[in-house]
Hints:
The protein is α+β, with helices and mostly antiparallel strands. It contains 21 helices and 22 strands. β2 and β3 (71-76) form a beta hairpin. α17 packs across α20 and α20 (595-612) packs across α21 (618-633). Residues 94-102 and 108-121 have low confidence and may be disordered.
Amino acid sequence: MQKGTINVQTENIFPIIKKFLYSDHEIFLRELISNAVDATQKLKTLASMDKVKGELGDLTIHVELDKKKKQLKVIDHGIGMTAEEIDKFINQIAFSSAEEFIKKYKGKSEADKNALIGHFGLGFYSSFMVSEKVEIYTKTYKKGGPTKAVRWECDGSPEYTLEEIDMTERGTEIILHIADDSTEFLEEYRILELLKKYSKFLPVPIQFGMEKVSEKTGKKDKDGNDEYKEVEKPRIINNTKPAWTQKPADLKIEDYKNFYRELYPMNFEEPLFHIHLNVDYPFNLTGILYFPKVKKNIEVQRDKIQLYSNQVFVTDSVEGIVPDFLTLLHGVLDSPDIPLNVSRSYLQSDANVKKISNHIMKKVTDKLEEIFKDNREEYEKKWDDIKVFIQYGMISEPKFYERAEKITLFKNVDGKYFTIKDYKKHVEKAQKDKDKKLVYLYATDKDEQHAFIESAKERGYDVLDMDGILDNHYINTLEQKFENTTFARVDADTIDKIIKKEEDQPSKLSEKDQETLKPLFEKFAKKENYSIIFESLSEKDQPVIITQPEFMRRMKDMQKLGGGMDYMGAMPDSYNLVVNSNHKLVNSILKEKDNKKQENLVKQVTDLAKLSQNLLKGQDLTDFIKRSVDIIGK
C-alpha cells in the first residue's frame, strides 16, 4: 500500500474547494457524470482507432445509492486508470487527463477531440463538497505492464492511500461517503432530480435504479384490445441522441415538435417555428431555438434556453450569452467553446461568447426574413405572437433594428397589416398635426377606446392596434428613429386637436355661455381635479369627452412596465374634461332653468364620459345607475 500527500500548492485545498470552487454543491454530480462520460467517449475514440482490442461491451454508466451505508456510487466502463495515472491525474491537480489525451492524438479529427469533455482533474475534487471520504476503484483498458487495478482513498485531507486490488471489469467506480451536512444527496428523488437536470442529454446511457413500465403481454382482452402488464426495467435517465446533435436533413417537423415537448413537458402550446443551428467555424455551436407563443408577462418567458457544453447541462440563465431580447426564446444551445465552470462576468466578456451571441442574432434575423419573403400571409398570421421578440430587439439592439425594420409590421384596428414603409404612405397625406408632423394614431384597447376610434375613422383617419406589453417602449424608439413623426393614443386628446384640420369648426356657444357652464362642470369634476376645456367639435361627437395627455399617460404606462420612474408614483393622474360646445345636449343644459335638473344633466354626461374611460367606480357608479333608471322612467 502506498501512502502520500496530494501535490497541491495550498496546504489544505479541500476546505477551499468545499467553500469556493462552486457556488452550488449539487454540481458535484454533474462533474462525476461528465468524467464518466469522458472516460467512455475516450474508449470509443480509441476503439475507432484500433487502440482497443475486443468487444467494448455494455458502456452504460450506473449511478447507485445506498442510504443505509450513506454511499453514492458512479460507475463507468470507460478507459479506467493505472496507478501511475491516478498519481498524475488525481494526486497532481495541475494536470488534466483530457488535455493530455488531446495532445497525444492532436492529429485526429475535430469530432474525436470534441467528444472529450476534459474535466477530469479539478472537477473530480468537487466530490469533497458533499463527502467525508471518497474512494476510487479503477482498472485500465491497457494490457500488459503495470496495469493492475488500484484503489485510491482520501478523507478530505491532503493525505491519501493507493493500493493494488483485484478487479475483473475495465472502468472506474467512485464511491462517495456522504457527509452529515449533505444527507439530501442520499435521497433518491434528489439524485433523480440532478440527473435529469444535468445529464438529460448526455451521449452515453446513464442508469439510476429501476422503474415500472407498462408492456404488452401479446394477448387480447374480450373486446380485442391489447393487454398490458406492469414490469420493472432499468431506469435510463437520458436521451443519448437529442435532436440538436442530428443533421437537420434527417429530422422532420414532427421530430422538432417532439423534442420541444421533451424539453418542456408542462408547456402544452406548440412553438411557432424553430431555428436549427449548426456552426463549426470560427467557433463550434449547435442547437435548436424555438419561437414560443409569448404570454402577457415576458418575465415568465425567461430562463427557457438551456446551455450545454458537449451535451452537459451548464445553465438556463443565458443573459450575456445570447442577446437579451432572445432570452425570450426557448430551446437548447451547445458549444464546447463555452467552459463549464466559469463566472457569469467571464462569459459576458469572453470573445467566443460574443461571437456566438452575434451569430445567434444573425440566424434568428435570417429566419424571420426568410418567412417574410417566402410566405407573407403566414408571417402575418404569426405576427401577433412574434412581435414582442422583434419589438424587444429593435428597442435594445441597434444592429437588429437595422435589419428588422424591413420585416416589421403595423396592424391597424381593422386587422390589416402594413410594413413600416407602406404604412407611412398610407397615412402621410391625411394625418398631420399643426406643426406638419406625421401623426400615427394608435389604440391600446379597442373595446375601451371604441368611441375614440370611431370618431377618428369617421374623419378618414387610420388607427393602429398597439395593445402589446412592450408597445409604449417601442413607440418611444420609433419616434426617435422616424423623422418628423409623433405617436398619439387615439384618446390622448380630441381627434381634431391631435390632427389639425384645415379650418376650425365654429362654436355654437359664445365665450359668455362657456363661462356660465364652466362652474357647473367644475363642481362635479373637482374631486378628480379634471381640467375643464370647451371645444367646438362635431355635433356627432359625444357631449363630454375625457382625455389623458399623451406624455402623462405614456410615462405612467412605462412606469407600470418597469420604466424605473419612481418620481411619477407621487404624481396624480391628469385628465382633461372636454365639453363639446356644438352638441345640442350641452346647449340644452345651458338653457335649462331648473337648477336641480341642470345639475343632474351635467352629472349624467360627466359620468357617461367617465364610464367610457373606465373611470366610474364605487359609489359614483351606483349613483349613476340609479340616476339613469330615474331618467329612463321619466
